Amino acid sequence: MSEIANRDVHQYLLTLLEQQQARFHVVEHDAVGKCEAVSEIRGTALGQGAKALVCKIKGNGVKKHVLAILAADLQADLSRLAHHFGGQKASLASPLEVEHLTACVFGAIPPFSFHPDLHLVADPVLFQRFDDIAFNAGLLEKSVIMDTQDYLRIAQPEIVDFRRLSA
Hints:
- This protein is α/β, with parallel strands linked by helices.
- Helix content is 29%, strand content 30%.
- The protein has helices at 6-19, 35-42, 78-84, 95-102, 125-128, 148-155; strands at residues 24-28, 50-59, 62-71, 89-92, 118-122, 132-139, 142-147, 158-159.
């Protein structure tokens, strides 16, 4: 599953959602990279957007890649993420690592991990405010809007508080 092309990620995701009887629909739109712009096109609130960050966690003998999912209106606190896994620091993965682990370009990554070396975590706030979440579905020009509970049931992310807390 680790060597799939982005068109395949999109189709694989749709097949998975159909097989799992998820409540979802696909929205086609221009390939825009900004969360604010795409949420407007989708007709969803910014906070419904599932932002996907591929992170590297290092230190204390830890070396791990994590797909961290966060509501698009929040910011990640990478040090909280590193601490959760016992590491000293976390950083965003390089574009090459992102492509290798997700078979997607940055901005098109769905909130599902299809690679055995990519651990899926999600901040709980994404699931507390809206009945549906929205995300790019393997391609910059296709999004999925799906039932929040169906997402949790199918993706089964580890729930980790890693959003930046306001001072």
